[in-house]
Amino acid sequence: MRPVEFTDEQVVEAGRTLQAQGRNITGFALRKLVGGGDPTRLKQRWDAHQASTAAGEPETVVELPIEVANVVEGLAVELAGRLKTLAVEVNDKAVKAAERRVSEVVKAAGEQASQAERELSDAATAVDELETVVAELQEQVQTKDRAYEALRQANQQQAVELAELRERMKNEQEKVQELRGELDKAKERAESNQQRADSLLQQFQAAEARIEQLQADDVKAREQINQVSQQLAEAKGALLAESAITKQARVELQEAQERAQDDREARSKAEQEAARLRGALEAKDSHVAELLQRFTVQPPAQEGATDDAAQTKTTPATKKTTAPKKKPGAQA
């Protein structure tokens, strides 16, 4: 048996609510208030409650009708004389009572028919409500079916995309493996290049040390060049002095030759003086040649400028020592 979904107290409370509202108590009305259940069983439980309530009350003795009581009293007085009349009257009263009972039964049957019609109306209303609920449920089911179909298609699409993603992931993994191999090769090349770079760095450091050594040697060479330049300048000064002396000797020789032409008597002396001056001049020329061989490093432009300066300095002295020429035939 199915378990009772609603208690008797709930059914009785629903029936009392319908009585308070002045409505007919039907199975469908009870079901509507209770919220579910079988209408027939709910009505049976309400009727059982009504019957138990009526059985608990004390039974009342039905008194005879007034007419019957009066007749009984009359019969008590006129029992013998009016027995036949009493029987007729009693029969008439019984028939009338039976008719009243029949009318009451017919009335009760009409009320039951009305009750049945009302229950049918409530049942039709409940059926309409149930049909509305069923239509809503069917619409919800259709909506859910459409949603399920959309989800199924989306799942299929996602499955296809997932397969594509797995294929792409596989390809990417293969590419990653290739890139890792290339990376290992690049690391090996980088290590080789690093070793070469270290070797080149050592060579560069050695070259820097060599350059520093050469720079130090260059500084020393420059110092030596400066010293040689100073010595050359000193030699140039001495050379200029010797050159001035040589020029002076040549001037004196020329003057002596001129005087020899003017004075035959002094010619021999002049020739002797000229020989002496030639010897001194040759000695000076050899000395100058030696100096020129020793200091050939000096640039020609500077040497020329130095000679010009020396010649400029010695020219006034030459002019001072030059004597005026004597005319031929003049006596000393």
Automatic annotation (TrEMBL):
Which ranges are annotated Basic residues under compositional bias?
A: 322-332
Q: Residue limits of the KfrA N-terminal DNA-binding domain?
A: 7-125
Entry keyword set: Coiled coil, DNA-binding
Matching InterPro entries: KfrA_DNA-bd_N
- One Pfam match, given by its short name, reads KfrA_N
Q: Where is the composition biased (Low complexity)?
A: 307-321
Name residues in a coiled coil: 106-280
Stretches for region Disordered = 296-332
Keyword DNA repair among record annotations: no
The protein's name in its UniProt record: DNA-binding protein
